[in-house]
């Protein structure tokens, strides 16, 4: 399978706990995005990597959120001290270097904070 | 800043009919790309069609076409011969050449009825 994969698919955590999500992009894709999507809304951009460099972060990405892509391959998104408002679907996407190519999305990680 | 507006929260169409989903955008960047994605109830984001700002012709992909009116800053998706499987959320998105993020609208829910 050469698609974008995300792990886990579902996560239930208690408020205040830390969680980490993983994204494995399509292998030849240098560019990687993280998004958050709440019910009935469009995906909201969180952050963008080109290879291992984090080049853009949204204001939505509070201090409790951190993302890494240490070797320019897989990426992790960590949320510290989770809050109920963090409950959402977290989507990862990757694309090639060509400007006119689409981003390919993973199936997402659904986070529920109780 | 870039903004995508989808003004139709929900649309109905009968099977085999055509439907137009509206999208307007705002950017000062002369070079940009416009994308449409479909998100069925299963949650995955499926790329449908792409239009570049310098493309002279409207994009087409099978039953999907993009009605691109640059002066009006609109990029409406036309689905011809609707099928029951077209029932889903549809998102318009934009990426500008001077930035990295792919920004999404709030989406339109399409229901195809028999």
Q: How would you characterize the overall build of this protein?
A:
The complex is a heterodimer of chains A (114) and B (114). Chain A contains no helices and eleven strands. Chain A has 114 residues and is mostly beta strands. Chain A is globular and about 40 Å long. Chain B is mostly beta strands. Chain B is 0% helix and 53% strand. Chain B contains no helices and twelve strands. In chain B, strands 2, 5, 6, 10, 11 and 12 form a six-stranded mixed β-sheet that branches. The mean pLDDT of chain B is 95. The chains are: A mainly beta (114), B mainly beta (114). The interface between A and B is medium-sized, with 26 and 24 residues.
Topology:
The complex is a heterodimer of chains A (114) and B (114).
Chain A: E1 5-7, E2 10-13, E3 19-24, E4 31-37, E5 44-50, E6 53-57, E7 65-68, E8 75-79, E9 88-95, E10 104-105, E11 109-113
Parallel strand pairs in A: 2-11
Antiparallel strand pairs in A: 1-3, 3-8, 4-5, 4-9, 5-6, 7-8, 9-10, 9-11
Chain B: E1 3-5, E2 10-14, E3 19-21, E4 24-26, E5 32-39, E6 46-52, E7 60-61, E8 64-69, E9 74-79, E10 88-96, E11 103-104, E12 108-113
Parallel strand pairs in B: 2-12
Antiparallel strand pairs in B: 1-4, 3-9, 5-6, 5-10, 7-8, 8-9, 10-11, 10-12
């Amino acid at each position: 399978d050469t698609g974008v994969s995300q792990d886990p698919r579902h996560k239930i955590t208690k408020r205040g706990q830390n969680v980490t999500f993983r994204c494995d992009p399509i292998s030849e894709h240098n560019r990687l995005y993280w998004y958050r999507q709440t019910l009935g809304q469009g995906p909201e951009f969180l952050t963008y990597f080109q290879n291992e460099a984090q080049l853009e972060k949204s204001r939505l990405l509070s201090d409790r959120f951190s993302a890494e892509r240490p070797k320019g391959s897989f990426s992790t998104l960590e949320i510290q001290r989770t809050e109920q408002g963090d409950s959402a679907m977290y989507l990862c996407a990757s694309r090639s270097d060509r400007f006119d190519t689409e981003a390919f999305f993973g199936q997402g990680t659904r986070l529920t904070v109780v | 800043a870039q903004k995508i507006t989808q003004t139709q929260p929900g649309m109905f169409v009968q099977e085999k009919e055509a439907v137009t989903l509206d999208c307007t955008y705002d950017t000062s960047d002369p070079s940009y790309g416009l994308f449409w994605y479909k998100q069925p109830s299963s949650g995955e984001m499926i790329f449908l069609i792409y239009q570049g700002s310098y493309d002279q012709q409207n994009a087409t992909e099978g039953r999907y076409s993009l009605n691109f009116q640059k002066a009006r800053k609109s990029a409406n998706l036309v689905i011809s011969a609707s099928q029951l499987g077209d029932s889903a959320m549809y998102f318009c998105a934009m990426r500008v050449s001077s930035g990295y993020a792919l920004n999404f609208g709030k989406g339109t829910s399409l229901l195809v009825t028999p």
